[in-house]
Design brief:
Layout: E1 54-59, E2 67-72, H1 78-84, E3 88-90, E4 102-104, E5 131-137, E6 145-146, E7 161-167, H2 182-185, H3 210-219, E8 221-222, E9 226-227, H4 237-251, H5 255-266, H6 268-272, H7 283-295, H8 308-314, H9 337-349, H10 356-363, H11 387-400, H12 404-417, H13 435-447, H14 451-464, H15 482-492, H16 536-544, E10 549-550, E11 554-555, H17 566-579, H18 583-594, H19 606-609, H20 618-630, H21 643-650, H22 675-687, H23 695-703, H24 724-735, H25 743-755, E12 763-765, E13 768-770, H26 771-781, H27 785-801, H28 821-831, E14 877-878
Parallel strand pairs: 1-7, 2-14
Antiparallel strand pairs: 1-2, 3-4, 5-6, 5-7, 8-9, 10-11, 12-13
Helix pairs in contact: 3-4, 3-15, 4-5, 4-7, 4-15, 7-8, 7-9, 9-10, 9-11, 11-12, 11-13, 13-14, 13-15, 16-17, 16-28, 17-18, 17-20, 17-28, 20-21, 20-22, 22-24, 24-25, 24-26, 26-27, 26-28
């Protein structure tokens, strides 16, 4: 199983978290529902069924109204579901319709949109305790989850229910939930029927060639003792533990296994105690070594000179959130569900009763559907699990005892998640198999009495075994991976980390012959060499295509809107500058920004930076200034404004008193609410030669670094999280500060980032195994490319794997497929490894591209329609009900603004309804676009 920092999983919770940490609005007891109607764009509610269409509900309770629901039989996004479900919206002056600031419906108070201007001016991001938060529930779910995506990025499925609630949430979305349930507003009421679990697919029984797999594992060992990554000279102890488990399962006690264990013993301090032998251990690493000792009849209390069990016991969090602790019961620094599970298991196998709250934390990771989330979420946070983590945690909970209900729930989930082929997908909703997920699920199912389902999984694994004996990560893989092969060996021998021991070396009915089924497909004729990066020329063509770059000048905020997303446009310019593959296109974008170019709403870039106004945004000014410096323009006269003077004026002298949200603290930039924005401001000032003026911002940024880990949080003021993207960005900023004052901080940051790398080369982010996070990690690690060359090569190969045929990139390895502009801009620039602190591209000799005539097409307008429809359930009003019409505000243009999952933004948007500036614990889906 992968550690908190290293395995291939749906990390980071597949969700975005609210910036706002204030207490939720208290709703009046007893929900009041209203009668009325709304714009007839809504489809009749009875047309939305558990298998067709989606329902959206908006709670107007804080404004004296009730809950109104609408139906859209063909929703394309959560935003369109809201608009076509019969509601009107209004955005902020700064970000337009993309940030939902007000919602109205003709069903309540003649269509007045709330909050009214008397309580919220909707100029910038709304107050922390007063915004529209976005909640979702999938078919079969009886409780709400905070949306993992912005409404324009989320694509509702049949039977889904969305809810919009005005108030506030904490950073995990664990407060401020709707006071009504999904069943209250579902079409027809009641839960969506769930598929009936079976005993497993009807597939033949297959066997894994364990000896062949063991030979393959042995071939991966350097000097027969440890694993070394390609291009590196240092041991990969994580994969070495995997090799030890595999060899123990395949052959029991042996000289080969003894040699591996000896290498782990001698490297225990380096691996498990990175902060020093007297400091707290890396919990997952210590747990892995303790399990190696237990499996091989060693002593985990005297392994490598350490009492691994005692050190684990001493480092269980007494409370949280706090640095290294998400909640009470976490093993300090575990961060991920598998690390927590392995630590609990290590104690159990060492004869130690684990602290009750450490076991309870595992039960808190069990989602409503029975899956187990891979990340150590806080109680009540959005929960979306995966089969691999579920398989491990189910076994550990069963071994711990007293958790029968949770175990039964996980087993039911696994049985439903199994594909007809016998495989298990890497994440919910995927349709192809994952070797590691299938292996862990098979182990759990066999241990928990589901032999038929386990046999089907092993049969699928046997079909995936390669000719050389190894296993790849995913279905149809052409090359082996140790992280996938090791759990497959355990599954093939009928054992698991719970029961594995060299005392009983004989596997369960071990096969002695090679797989009987030959591969059905030939390997590719030209496999990419290890470490190959993405096709940047193809990627630049995607970024500059007329469909994406409006009139060659800017990226739009989404949908049919002509409003520019200036933050995303600058991201695209950074990408073009980093590659140099289309300097004329870069010149065209820069000229548009620098020479007062206006978007379709007559806005310039400084309607976004707000430079010179009371709402001047430090992060946005810094981002625009850095672009000017990159292309050798004058940041003191960019777009007719002095951005460097604006940054100097934006340095806060003290924390602003509530309700003023402009200054997080002394040294922060005004309205720069993220580490990303603070870092860009610092880079801009230093590149302008204003190091003295930047002293306070530099000091504030440096002070945000976690002393225990070297990581940075997402937000300012900090919330205790640790984030790959922000850490890489802060390292780039401090790296350009003259002198060596911050060299140690940069080194510690890079070491932390490198430790977060997943086995496939990716890095965890908000949307899972994130393209944005991997790209930023490459930029950060490239500050010391000599040391981190192997990690950079793996990350670039991961980025290449996420590039689509059109040249663009997916948001993440998991989830919705298809190219995303924001992810693509970061992937292109990040894969070059050039820091924002030194990026330069001369535009000398370039010619701006001719600007085509604007499109004559007009935005789509929501128009009145059929008023007919049926009444909803008790107390529920449908937007298509009697008395409707398009009064009270009427239909607005469906702008379709694109959601920005930015924890790095100074005023990050939840386009089309986030209602939350995002961030926290490795959960970011984009970089800087909303600065």
């Amino acid at each position: 199983m992968g550690t908190a920092q290293q395995h291939d999983r749906r990390a980071a919770g597949r969700r975005l978290l609210s910036l706002f940490s204030a207490a939720a609005v208290t709703f009046a007891a007893g929900l009041t529902f209203v009668t009325g109607a709304a714009p007839a764009a809504a489809d009749p509610i009875e047309q939305c069924t558990p298998t067709h269409g989606a329902v959206v509900a908006v709670d107007f309770g804080p404004f004296g109204g009730g809950v109104v629901r609408g139906c859209d039989t063909t929703p394309t996004t959560g935003y369109e579901l809201l608009r076509d479900g019969g509601f009107t919206t209004e955005g902020t002056q700064h970000d337009g319709e993309g940030f939902i600031c007000r919602i109205g419906t003709a069903s309540f108070n003649s269509g007045t949109r709330y909050p009214t201007p008397a309580t919220e001016d909707c100029v910038l991001t709304p107050q922390a305790t007063a915004y529209w938060s976005y909640w979702i529930a999938s078919p079969g779910q009886s409780s709400w989850s905070y949306s993992p995506l912005g409404a324009m990025d989320r694509k509702p499925e049949a039977g889904d229910v969305d809810a919009w609630v005005f108030g506030g949430t904490d950073v995990g979305g664990s407060t401020g939930r709707p006071t009504f349930t999904p069943d209250d507003v579902r079409a027809g009421g009641g839960a969506t029927p769930s598929p009936t679990p079976t005993d497993g697919p009807s597939v033949p029984v297959g066997k894994i060639d364990v000896p062949a797999a063991a030979r393959w594992v042995s071939e991966q060992l350097h000097d027969g003792s440890h694993v070394v990554d390609e291009g590196s000279e240092t041991p990969n102890y994580f994969l070495t533990t995997e090799a030890a488990y595999a060899l123990a399962a395949a052959g029991g006690k042996s000289p080969a296994l003894d040699k591996v264990v000896a290498a782990l013993d001698s490297g225990a301090t380096e691996y498990a105690y990175p902060a020093g032998p007297e400091e707290a251990p890396d919990a997952p690493a210590a747990a892995r070594l303790a399990l190696v000792a237990a499996v091989t009849e060693g002593d985990p209390r005297a392994f490598g000179g350490h009492d691994l069990l005692g050190d684990l016991e001493k480092n269980v969090c007494a409370s949280g959130p706090a640095p290294g602790c998400t909640a009470k019961g976490d093993f300090r620094g575990a961060a991920y569900g598998d690390g927590q599970a392995l630590a609990v298991l290590a104690l159990l196998r060492g004869g130690v009763v684990p602290p009750a709250h450490a076991v309870t934390r595992l039960t808190q990771l069990v989602c409503e559907d029975g899956s187990v989330t891979s990340i150590l979420i806080g109680p009540g946070e959005h929960c979306d699990g995966d089969p691999m983590t579920t398989g491990l945690v189910a076994q550990v909970l069963d071994e711990a005892g007293g958790q029968d209900a949770a175990v039964a729930k996980t087993v039911a989930y696994l049985k439903k998640a199994q594909l007809r082929s016998g495989a298990f997908p890497p994440y919910n909703g995927a349709t192809t198999g994952s070797v590691a997920a299938t292996a862990y699920a098979a182990q759990a199912l066999r241990a928990l009495g589901e032999a038929r389902a386990a046999d089907a999984a092993v049969w699928w694994l046997s079909r995936e075994q390669l000719a050389d004996g190894g296993f790849g990560f995913d279905e149809g893989a052409e090359s082996g991976a140790l992280y996938a092969t090791a759990p497959a060996v355990l599954a093939g021998t009928g054992t698991s980390l719970v029961t594995l021991t060299t005392k009983a070396p004989e596997p369960t009915d071990p096969p002695t012959t090679p797989p009987t089924t030959p591969p059905t497909t030939a390997p590719p004729t030209t496999p990419p060499p290890a470490g190959d990066g993405p096709d940047l020329k193809k990627a630049v063509a995607y970024l500059t295509s007329p469909a994406n770059l409006r009139q060659g000048r800017y990226y739009a905020a989404g949908g049919s809107t002509t409003r520019a997303d200036f933050g995303l446009t600058i991201d695209g310019a950074f990408a073009l500058a980093a590659t140099g593959h289309d300097n004329d296109a870069l010149r065209t974008v820069v000229d548009f920004l620098d020479k007062g170019g206006k978007d379709g709403e007559a806005r310039t870039v400084h309607d976004w930076t707000n430079v010179g106004s009371a709402h001047a945004m430090g992060g946005s000014m810094g981002k625009a200034a850095v672009l000017a410096q990159v292309v050798e323009r004058d940041p003191r006269d960019f777009g007719g404004k002095d951005l460097i003077a604006g940054l100097a004026d934006a340095v806060c002298t003290a924390k602003s008193p509530q309700p003023d949200r402009s200054c997080a603290d002394k040294g922060a930039y005004a309205y720069a609410m993220s580490v990303f924005g603070q870092s860009l401001g610092v880079i801009a000032q230093i590149r302008a030669g204003e190091t003295k003026a930047a002293e306070a911002p530099i000091g504030y940024l440096a002070g945000l670094q976690h002393t225990a880990t070297g990581a940075w949080p997402s937000l300012v003021p900090p919330t205790g999280d640790a984030d790959v993207d922000s850490t890489a960005m802060a390292a780039m900023a401090l790296d350009v500060v003259p002198g060596d004052t911050h060299a140690g901080a940069v080194d510690r940051a890079l070491a932390w980032v490198a430790a977060q790398q997943l086995p496939d080369g990716g890095f965890p982010g908000a949307a899972g195994n994130s393209v944005n996070s991997a790209a930023l990690a490459v930029q950060g690690l490239s500050l010391d490319a000599g040391k981190y060359g192997a990690q950079i090569a793996k990350a670039r190969k991961f980025l290449a794997s996420q590039q689509n045929a059109d040249g663009g990139f997916n948001v993440a390895k998991e989830g919705q497929r298809g190219s995303d502009l924001r992810a693509s801009t970061q992937a292109v620039g990040g894969s070059t490894g050039i820091s924002f602190g030194v990026l330069t591209r001369s535009l000398e000799g370039t010619t701006p591209n001719p600007v085509p005539s604007p499109s004559a097409s007009a935005p789509v307008i929501v128009t009145p329609g059929d008023n007919a429809g049926s009444a909803g359930g008790p107390g529920i009003v449908d937007t298509d009900g009697p008395g409707g019409g398009s009064g009270g505000g009427g239909g607005l243009a469906a702008t379709g603004g694109q959601a920005l999952g930015l924890a790095a933004a100074a005023a990050v948007l939840v386009l089309a309804g986030w209602g939350a500036v995002v961030a926290a614990r490795n959960r970011r889906s984009a970089v800087g676009g909303g600065l």
